[in-house]
Amino acid sequence: MVCELAAEALHDEGYRVLTAADALEAEQILSHERVDLLFTDIDLARNTNGLTLAHRARCQRPDLPVVYTSGGCGGLSESEAVCDSVFVPKPYLPSDIVALTNDILRRAPSPHHV
């Protein structure tokens, strides 16, 4: 539910939003689509977690901005998260995610896919 609200808010802001049901689907999207920002929950369904997903994504794209979220932890240590990532605790307002995304991607002049 939270994912859908954030995705809708980003779409309404003009972003092309690609969502995945789990980390495997996210990895497929990352390998086939141009993604400008990875927004991932730390606690993903089934096969892996958002920390592993972000590390794998950064192996392919070292410059990929990463935003983590979770309702079950108070934050991330530097050793857990990828370098220069952002953590947003749940609950959050979709407008906060839009503002953060705008701030992160402001410097990138390409079409944005979140």
From TrEMBL:
Entry annotated with the keyword Transmembrane = no
Instruction: Tell me which residues bear 4-aspartylphosphate.
Output: D41
**Alphabetically, which GO biological process terms does the record hold?**
phosphorelay signal transduction system
Domain Response regulatory positions? 1-105
Instruction: Establish whether keyword Phosphoprotein is in the entry.
Output: yes
Keywords (alphabetical) are: Phosphoprotein
Question: Per its record, how is this protein called by name?
Answer: Response regulatory domain-containing protein
Source organism = Methylobacterium gnaphalii
